[in-house]
Design goal:
mainly alpha
Length: 172
C-alpha cells in the first residue's frame, strides 16, 4: 500500500503527539514500573481517522517513548522496548475495525467508549503475555520484581521526607 503525503504527515504528527503525551504523563506519574500513559489518545485518534495501516504505524512509532521508559530505562530491558511498541501498534490496528463494527459516529457516546475499551484489549493481553514471557526469559518473577522495585522507591521517598522534616524542625 502506497501512502500519500497527507497520510504520512498525519502519521508523523500523531506519532509525535503520542510520544510527547507519553513523556509528560509517564514522567509525572511514574512509580517504579507503573505510570499513567496518555499516548494511546493519539493512537486512538490516528487509528480511527487513518485506518488500520496508519493506526499500526502510529502505534509503532508512538510507542517508542513508553517502550524506552519502561524498557531499557525501566526494568524490562530491550525486550520491553520492542514488546511495548508492538503492543501499542496492535491498539492502532484494531481501533478502526472495532469502531466500524460498532458503527460509531459523533452521536454514539456509549459505543465510542466501548470501542476504545475493546480496542485496548489486544495490547493489554499482549502486555500480560510479554510480562510473563520476560519473567521466564530473565528468570525473575515479574510480580516479585514489581513489588521490590516499588518498595525500594517508596522507601527512598519516606527516607527523603523524614530527612527534610527533621532538618526543618531542628533549625526552626
Amino acid at each position: 500500500m502506497r501512502l500519500s503525503t497527507r497520510e504520512l504527515s498525519f502519521a508523523a504528527v500523531m506519532a509525535a503527539l503520542a510520544n510527547v503525551l507519553a513523556m509528560v504523563s509517564i514522567g509525572l506519574t511514574r512509580v517504579g514500573q507503573i505510570g499513567l500513559d496518555f499516548s494511546n489518545l493519539a493512537i486512538f485518534i490516528g487509528g480511527i481517522y487513518g485506518g488500520p495501516v496508519l493506526g499500526f504505524v502510529i502505534g509503532l512509532l508512538g510507542g517508542i517513548v513508553p517502550g524506552l521508559m519502561f524498557g531499557p530505562l525501566g526494568g524490562l530491558g530491550w525486550l520491553g522496548l520492542f514488546g511495548l511498541t508492538f503492543g501499542k501498534s496492535l491498539t492502532g490496528l484494531t481501533v478502526e475495525y472495532v469502531t466500524r463494527t460498532l458503527r460509531v459516529n459523533r452521536k454514539t457516546g456509549v459505543r465510542s467508549m466501548a470501542s476504545v475499551l475493546i480496542s485496548y484489549l489486544p495490547e493489554s493481553f499482549f502486555t500480560i503475555l510479554l510480562s510473563e514471557f520476560s519473567s521466564i526469559l530473565l528468570g525473575v518473577n515479574s510480580v516479585a520484581k514489581f513489588w521490590l522495585g516499588n518498595f525500594r522507591y517508596c522507601k527512598g521517598l519516606v527516607r527523603d521526607c523524614d530527612y527534610r522534616y527533621l532538618h526543618r524542625s531542628t533549625h526552626a
